[in-house]
Every structure is written in structure tokens, then in C-alpha cells.
Amino acid sequence: MTLTNYWWLLIWMFTGGILLEILVPRRRELVCGKMEERWDTVSALILVIPYIIWAGYRTDAFGDTRAYRMAFRNAPTQLGQLTEYLSTITKDKGFSVLTVLVKCIIGNSDVLFFLIIATIQLLCIVYICRKYSCNYWLSMFLFVASTDYISWMHNGIRQFLAITIVFASTELLIKKKYIQLILIILLASTIHASMLFMIPVVFIVQGKAWNKKSVLCIIACIIALFFVDQFTDILDTALSTTQYSGMVSDWEEWGDDGTNPIRVLVYSIPMLLSIIGYKQIKASDNPLIHITTNFSILAFGTALLSMSTSGIFIGRMIQPTFVYAILILLPWELKNIFTEESSKLMQIFTVIGYVAFFYYQMHITWGML
Fold first, then answer.
1. Which residue pairs from 11-18 have beta carbons closer than 8 angstroms and sit at least 24 positions apart in sequence?
2. Domain span at residue 277?
């Protein structure tokens, strides 16, 4: 069950998607006050099952899988040992608690542990995309073809687990139930502290698309880009008393030269399309589309800043905003800001473009194809 030919990531997405589209009729349901066509829950789950299995049976060849595997194997098997074990953990203890709880239930199978984590992550993605995306298949395709599936479910699983938990709370964001949402963010931050970044973000993205708050944020990122040395000094001082102290010196020591400009271009697509389709976004009067547009602006600003600072650290701040921009906003833009004929053509171009990016990232950058 271990994935050895990574082309299967796209092969299954196309073949499975076509079969499910033909065999399983869509159903109509109420979404944000409007009747919309959506995939059936069972077919939506069937599409992602192989990706859960591949994430569970992955090898140590990519990313930090080996580190997570060793951490799981070294975790205690009895709850009575939890307190002593946590005293040895210096950060993000929520994930360590989850690791021990899971290990107490399933035993020493690290494969089963990875399967459980991958299941939680993808179920959160499926729940939101099936409900809120106007094109569920395209959302899942973009997640895989952008290589975010590999980047986050075969690597960086702790942060992505935290991201998907918050992403699953999108309804609270739409309804402005801030207390419940902030409590969930605080819970997720025990798994990965970077999620604290989302507390101010949930207020910034509220309101109309391209409002003053989101525009000021992108201006701030551009200013920081021009004064990057001063920005890194301020960042180093601000983080000096946190678990991320020394982050700036770490990325300089590791030779981290920032996020790849081609990936930054990919991250910018939803934001650029929101400029082209601003009238349609405004006319839609859809609070989720306005929110995700503002997320796309923050994603672009952060990506731009990470290009000249750190792809490992600053680049990681993109993903909590990018999941909204690529999984929800981009399919809506392709469907709604063009004519019906142009929309189909743009979706074809998007699929071709992302397949090309998949090849570039997997073959040229990572050497995995």
C-alpha cells in the first residue's frame, strides 16, 4: 500500500473523479441560504480514501516522517506515564497528549497512528469542501496537484492537523461566533502554536472583500519586504520569549533562502482572480466568498514576504489562509467570474497548469518523479 509512483496521486484523482461523477448523482442542499448542488457524502469520502491510505503507509524518505515515527515509538504506552513524559516536551504539548492517547488505544503501530492522523485531517477537509465548495472535485484536485497534500500530509502533519481542525470550524467563522472559534483555535494551538496567528486573522478577514483591513495587511507585507532586515530584527525580538526564539538565526544558519517564486505565483492566483472578478464577488453578496477573498489577500502577502525571508518558517504561515483561498475561493472564481463557455475553458487551463506545477515540484524541485 506504500505509494512508490507519485503519478497515482493524479491518476486516481482523474479516474476516480470521473467514475464517481458519472455513477453518483449530485444532490441539492441549502448552503449559505441558497440551494446548491453538492456531491453525495459517500462519494466524497470514496474519492479521498486512497490519499488517507497513502499518507498512512508512507516511507521515511520524505520530510519529517521519520522524526514523527520515532516520537511515536518513544511515547509511553500508559496514561500514568503521561505527566512525566510531558515534562520532557518543550513545545506544542497537545500533540504529545494526542500521541500518547492514541498509542494507549492502538498499541505500537506507527502506520495506524499515521492513518488516524490522516483520517482526521482529510475528514475535516472533506466536510468543509463538500459543503461549501461549488466544485468538490476541483477543490480536491487543487489540494493534491498543488503538492500541498504531499507537503502537509506526508510532512508537517502536526501543523496541518491544527490547520484542519480550525478549517473544520468555518461555519463559526461565517456566523461570527468568535468565542467558540477562538476556543477551537486555542485548542489547535496546543498542537501547533503557529495557529495563534489565526486569532487576529479571523477578525481581519471579516467584512467585504478587499476592505481596508485586508488592504492594510498586504501594504504592511510589502513595506516589510522593502525593509526586510528591520523586519527580521523586530521579528527576532518579538519571538525572543516564545518557543520560536532563535527562529531568524535558524533560517539564516540553514541557508533557507525563502519560498520558491513559482510557488508564490501559484499562491497568488486566487487573489489575482479576485481583482478581475471584484464586481462578481461584490454582487454575489456571499459572506463566505468575501471572507475567502480576504484570506487570499493575506495568503499572497505572506507568500510574498516569505519569498525574501524564510520558506520554512514564514512560509508555513501561508497555509492556514491558503486552504480557504484555494479550496473554496478559486473553484468559485473559475465558475462565477467568467461566461459559461469561458468558465469551462478556464477550468481546463487551471487543471493543465496545476498538473504542470505538480510535475515541476515533484520532479524538478523534489526529485520524487
1. 12/50, 13/47, 13/137, 13/140, 13/141, 13/144, 13/145, 16/46, 16/47, 16/50, 17/47, 17/137, 17/140, 17/141
2. 205-337
